[in-house]
Amino acid sequence: MLAKRIPTILPDLTFNEALEVTKIHSIAEILIKDRPLVVNRPFRSPHHTISTTGLVGGGINPKPGEISLAHYGVLFLDELPEFNRKTLEVLREPLEDKSITITRINASLTYPCNFMLVASMNPCPCGFLGSIGKQCTCTPDAISKYIGKISGPLLDRIDIQVEVNQVKYQNLAETKNIESSKDIKIRVNKARKIQQERYKDYGIYSNAELTTKLINKYCKIDNKTAKVLEEAFKKLRLSARAYDRILKVARTIADLEEKKNIELKHVAEAIQYRNLDKKYWKN
Ligand SMILES: [Zn+2]
User: Which helix (H) or strand (E) holds 64?
Assistant: First the structure.
């Protein structure tokens, strides 16, 4: 439910982004009739039976796959462990490079794929592991097989990993004091504007696109904060990649608060979002 509402808080597409998205959708021949320009961020949610070609692109006349159709938008993979493990592994490179090269005998073709990966999964095949009301009926073997579909390196590339507990009906019906999507979107748009302005000389639009060099320049933290991050790094046995990613998320949290500098609380919050790393991947 949460994932499906993400489009309601995505920042507005800039004109340049819209042009890029429209080009890809035009090549894929999925533009909506009478609407020459894509004006909303794409939200793609392919079924778990999708082939590798369908996901990353290819074919005799190489067409863009779902990851490119989700360029500047969201690729939502519901029930992540249901996807073919090999298909999921192919996501690793494009998640880093934000582009995908499809090689054919005579030529190679590169499509952009700067998407936000959103995925959901149950704690176990039956879905009730850790639940208060119902008992999980899965064997430990079935659970580890299910979790094992998500590789460590793939999980490492997921910046925000959150466990969501069952919601009680009363809480679901409770609507007061909840920030609306409309209000959240205003904050998101503000944060994105800050980033566009900050990175205007580099041809990038968001913190997610920062290279290590730019992280060093724009994600500076004080000594005290660096110490906390170092501790977490050792405790959670995070990778160098996760380290960079935590700083980018902290930068975004600071931007959402319109803070110039990354503070200790921003880094602490970003670290909290890595809670599946330790739980599911114990190598
Ligand atoms: Zn179960």
Answer: strand 63-64
Quote the ligand 1 centre to 8 CA distance (angstroms): 32
77 shares a domain with 185 = no
For residues 25 and 88, membership in a common domain is answered with yes
> Helix/strand/coil (H, E, C) string of 106-117?
CCEEEEECCCEE
Residues 213 and 234 occupy one common structural domain: yes
Note the pLDDT tens digit of each residue in 157-185.
999 998 887 777 667 677 667 889 999 99
Evaluate whether 138 touches 124 at the Cβ level (below 8 Å).
yes
Structurally, the chain folds into a number of domains equal to: 3
Residue 160 included in any domain: no
State in Å: Cα 125 to ligand 1 middle.
Answer: 5
Same domain, 37 and 105: yes
Write out pLDDT tens, residues 195-243. 999 999 999 999 999 999 999 999 999 999 999 999 998 888 888 889 9
Distance 135 CA to ligand 1 centre (A): 8
* Length of the chain in terms of residues written: 283
255: Cα separation from own chain's centroid: 18
3-state secondary structure of 270: helix
For 257, the domain range is: 181-280
Query: Could you give the CA distance from residue 164 to residue 93 in angstroms, rounded to a whole number?
Result: 28
Q: Global pTM? A: 0.90
**215 CA from centroid of ligand 1 (Å):** 41
268 part of a folded domain? yes
